[in-house]
């Protein structure tokens, strides 16, 4: 579903992502884990077109995204849940989700989104800023899914979320993958969440993939050693 080839991203003279290559299969969930400052968020933003790339190729479902701006990548099939959720606090829940419909021909919120997130249906007239952190994260995911993506990208989805809610988010993301048949790429620092959700785990360090394991064969202690300071 996604092929990232020799991907490079720089801020000025500093190379943040260095000649990175990896693939994501159809219906596969891949977690990118690493310490703060290792390039996780830069990678996610560059794949969505929010920041420019220096070199390389990004191919989604056989189509190159290299020349596409962010809104064009959404139309091509990328859904993005940014770090910090970034919901529209003064807009209602329903209005927030509807902003994700702009790249589709649909004008009303798909009912399956409310089935996945019943609390959002209950609170559809409430302002987004009045929701809890966990509810806002559900809203951000629903908004991204409203564009009917082929690939859902989430940047640090557990940040600021209660541990009890983190389990719910993991379960929901697996349900989304199974019911909608899409692929998921998630950047994460919480290893237990990554192991809970992902089919495959990539470890990023100083802008490069330094380790890769499937969930079935994952050596948790080895992965954790990369995350320790």
What do you see in this structure?
By secondary structure, this protein is an alpha/beta fold. The protein has a single domain (2-227), classed as P-loop containing nucleotide triphosphate hydrolases (Rossmann fold, 3-Layer(aba) Sandwich), CATH 3.40.50.300. Helix content is 34%, strand content 27%. The protein is built from 9 helices and 10 strands. The protein has helices at residues 40-47, 70-76, 93-98, 111-116, 118-122, 133-145, 163-180, 191-197, 220-227, and strands at 2-11, 14-24, 29-33, 55-60, 63-64, 78-81, 151-155, 183-188, 200-205, 208-214. A 6-stranded mixed beta sheet has the order 6-7-8-3-9-10, sandwiched between helices. The chain is globular, with a radius of gyration of 17 Å. The mean pLDDT is 91.
Report a brief summary of the structure.
The chain contains nine helices and ten strands.
